[in-house]
Design brief:
By secondary structure, this protein is of the alpha/beta class. The protein has 13 helices and 13 strands. Strand 3, helix 3 and strand 4 form a beta-alpha-beta unit. The relative contact order is 0.14.
C-alpha cells in the first residue's frame, strides 16, 4: 500500500471562498512537502491547472528540500513535444534519484484550448494514446520516426537515461470508453476519484480485463479526501463546519462548471454527489462513512472518508480489498491535516513508512496547537 498526499496552488480551511483561502507561495508549499517527507507518506501529487504554479518547476524546487518523498507530476499530453517531455522526465528522475512519477491528464474541453489544443473528447484521448506511445518508445531508447494524426517525429531519440527502468511509472485516470482503453495500453497505475467501493470495483474489473487482453498488468489507485478526528462525532462535526461554509455562490459556480464539462468522470461524480446542498452534512453520506460534500464546491474528487481513525482505516482497507494499492489523500487545510492524518491514521495502515519517526517525536506541539 502506498499513501500520497496532495499539493495544489489553492489551500485554506475552505478555499472555495475568499474568506477561507490562504496565500500559497513557495515557502508554504515547501512546508507541506517537508511534512510529507518527514512524516513518512510515500509522496505527493503535484496538481496542475490553468494559470497556476507549474508542477515541474515546483517539483524541481522541492527535490533538495526532501529526501524520500516521490513526486507525482501531472502532465497534459500535447502541450510539449514527446521528446521534450522525455528529456524533462529523465532529468528530474536523475536529479531526484528515481523519485518521479508522471500522472497523465488528458484534460477537458474548457481546460485545453488556452494551451492551443482544441479537440473533441474522443480526439483528445486519441492524442493521448499517440503521445504516451511515443513517450514510452523514447524512454526505451528508440530512435523514433513517426507520422500520426496528431504528432510527427523524425529522428527523435532520448540520450539521457532515467534512473527508473524502463521509465518513471505512469499514472492515468479517465472513465470514458476511450480513456479505459488508453489506461489498459499505457498506464502502470490506473487512478479514479473516490466513488463508493462497489462502483470503483467495476472500473478495476474493466481496466484489468482490457490490460490482460494486451498482456499487461495494471495497478490501481484512488484519489479521495479525508476528514479524520479522534471520534466519529468530531469528524461529522468537522464535515458540518465545512458544509456551513459552502455558500450558494460557490455551489452554483462549481455546479455550472461541472455541468459544462465533457468529462465522463466528472459526470459520474456529479451523479454521486447531486446538486442540492442539504442542511445536515450526513444527508450527503452516499455510502457508509463516505461524504459527498466536497463535490458541491469543486470539480474532480468530491468525496471524503469521514470518521474516527479506526473507521477511516477500515474504509481504506475496504478499498484495498477491492483492488486499490495506491491512495492519494488530503484534507483541509493541507498543512495541518498532513500532521493530523499522520498522527491519527497512518499508524493503523499497513504501508512502508520509510524513515518516518514516531508520531510523538515528529509532530510535537505544532499538531497540538493546530488541533486546538
Amino acid at each position: 500500500m502506498e499513501i500520497y498526499w496532495y499539493l495544489i496552488p489553492q489551500d485554506g480551511p475552505y478555499p472555495w471562498n475568499a474568506k477561507g483561502r490562504r496565500p500559497v507561495d513557495h515557502d508554504y508549499l515547501a512546508q507541506i512537502a517537508r511534512a510529507v517527507d518527514h512524516l513518512g507518506y510515500t509522496g505527493a501529487l503535484l496538481a496542475t491547472g490553468g494559470g497556476e504554479h507549474d508542477a515541474w518547476v515546483l517539483g524541481a524546487s522541492l527535490i533538495p528540500l526532501t529526501k524520500r518523498m516521490k513526486f507525482i507530476i501531472a502532465v497534459h499530453p500535447g502541450i510539449v513535444a514527446p521528446l521534450m517531455l522525455a528529456q524533462k522526465a529523465a532529468t528530474f528522475d536523475q536529479f531526484s534519484d528515481g523519485r518521479l512519477i508522471l500522472n497523465m491528464v488528458t484534460g477537458e474541453q474548457h481546460q485545453m484550448p488556452p494551451y492551443g489544443i482544441e479537440l473533441a473528447h474522443d480526439e483528445r484521448y486519441a492524442l493521448t494514446d499517440e503521445y504516451w506511445g511515443l513517450y514510452r518508445r523514447l524512454m526505451a531508447g528508440e530512435v523514433v520516426d513517426f507520422q500520426g494524426k496528431y504528432l510527427n517525429l523524425r529522428n527523435a531519440q532520448l540520450k539521457l537515461p532515467a534512473v527508473q527502468k524502463p521509465y518513471p511509472p505512469l499514472f492515468f485516470g479517465g472513465s470514458s470508453e476511450p480513456a479505459l482503453s488508453v489506461a489498459a495500453r499505457h498506464a502502470d497505475t490506473y487512478l479514479t476519484w473516490g466513488e463508493p467501493p462497489p462502483q470503483a470495483a467495476e472500473k478495476i474489473k474493466t481496466v484489468r480485463e482490457r490490460a490482460k487482453a494486451l498482456g499487461r498488468n495494471v495497478k490501481f489507485g484512488i484519489r479521495i479526501n479525508l476528514i479524520v478526528r479522534e471520534t466519529k462525532q468530531e469528524a461529522w462535526d468537522a464535515a458540518q463546519w465545512l458544509l456551513d461554509r459552502m455558500d450558494d455562490t460557490a455551489v452554483e459556480g462549481a455546479q455550472a462548471r461541472n455541468v459544462a464539462s465533457d468529462s465522463v468522470g466528472q459526470r459520474r461524480m456529479r451523479e454521486i454527489v447531486g446538486t442540492r446542498k442539504p442542511k445536515r452534512a450526513q444527508e450527503l453520506e452516499i455510502y457508509p462513512d463516505i461524504w459527498a460534500g466536497f463535490g458541491l464546491v469543486r470539480n474532480g474528487p468530491g468525496t471524503a472518508i469521514v470518521g474516527d481513525p479506526e473507521t477511516v482505516a477500515a474504509r481504506i482497507l475496504e478499498y484495498r480489498d477491492v483492488g486499490f494499492d495506491t491512495f492519494i489523500v488530503s484534507g483541509q487545510p493541507l498543512l495541518e491535516e498532513t500532521y493530523r492524518v499522520a498522527d491519527l491514521l497512518l499508524p493503523l495502515l499497513p504501508f512502508d513508512r520509510g524513515e518516518r519517526r514516531q508520531a510523538e517525536h515528529a509532530i510535537g506541539p505544532f499538531f497540538n496547537a493546530a488541533r486546538g
